[in-house]
């Protein structure tokens, strides 16, 4: 039987549906998708794709930090973009937050995201 531990922190937005901010199972940490929600106000940040990317990554960092992890522990990132034309901005932001070797990554364009977000990012880490 798999043991799962719910990850919960007030430093990241509270779940807006039937999911956990993250789940830890052994050394594996599965981080739910984060959009550009400010955790204090639960409102979307303003400023376009760059501001939303920054907030998504801050939110992921907070959830990961709550179990003693950081971005160096992330092995896989999945990014959902409203416009794949934002791919260059995504790469610039990834270079800002991640060091080599970069995690494996998928980036896909989607028709719509919760709260009409421009981006959502989920990740898998090993601690």
From TrEMBL:
InterPro entries: RidA, RidA_CS, RutC-like_sf, YjgF/YER057c/UK114. Gene3D superfamilies: RutC-like (3.30.1330.40). One of its GO terms (cellular component) is cytosol. Pfam families: Ribonuc_L-PSP. GO terms for molecular function: deaminase activity. Keywords: Hydrolase. It comes from the Bacteria. It is an enzyme of class 3 (hydrolase). The keyword Transmembrane does not apply. Its EC number is 3.5.4.-. Belongs to the RutC family. This is Enamine/imine deaminase. It comes from Candidatus Berkiella aquae. The lineage of its organism: Bacteria, Pseudomonadati, Pseudomonadota, Gammaproteobacteria, Candidatus Berkiellales.
């Amino acid at each position: 039987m798999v043991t799962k531990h719910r990850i919960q922190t007030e430093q990241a937005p509270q779940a807006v549906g039937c999911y956990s901010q993250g789940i830890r199972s052994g050394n594996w940490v599965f981080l739910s998708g984060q959009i550009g929600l400010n955790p204090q106000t639960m409102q979307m940040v303003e400023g376009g794709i760059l501001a939303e990317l920054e907030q998504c990554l801050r939110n992921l960092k907070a959830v990961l930090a709550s179990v003693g992890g950081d971005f160096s522990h992330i092995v896989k990132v999945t990014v959902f973009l409203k416009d794949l034309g934002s791919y260059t901005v995504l790469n610039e932001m990834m270079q800002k937050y991640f060091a080599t070797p970069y995690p494996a990554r998928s980036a896909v364009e989607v028709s719509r995201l919760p709260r009409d977000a421009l981006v959502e990012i989920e990740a898998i880490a090993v601690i």
